[in-house]
Amino acid sequence: MIMETYQKLIELAEAARLDVEKAHEGNKAAGTRARKAMQEIREQAKVVRDTILQARGPGGE
């Protein structure tokens, strides 16, 4: 389960790459898409973190 949630995080990051590159070049629309993608990545990173904590069992931290 941990690897599946982590793989989803990696896929989101890879999908955002083109928009991040375009935003770096000054494309404002790509910047908006990149910021949205970063929010999705942030949310997925939290899922990965929570999944890891659950796998550790009670008293996870």
Written overview of the protein:
By secondary structure, the protein is mainly α. It has one domain. The protein is 85% helix and 0% strand. Helix 1 (2-24) packs antiparallel against helix 2.
Summarize the structure.
With 61 residues, the chain is mainly alpha-helical. It has helices at 2-24, 28-56.
What distinguishing features does this structure have?
61 residues; elongated; mainly alpha
**Runs with pLDDT <50, length 5+?**
none
Rg calculated over all Cα atoms: 15 Å
Give the amount of beta strand, in percent. under 5%
Per DSSP E runs of 2 or more residues, the count of β-strands stands at 0
**Average pLDDT level:** 95
The number of helical segments is 2
Described by the principal axes of the CA atoms, the overall outline is: elongated
- Domain module count: 1
Report the sheet with the most strands, covering strand number, pairing sense and barrel closure.
Answer: none
Write the layout of secondary structure elements.
Elements: H1 2-24, H2 28-56
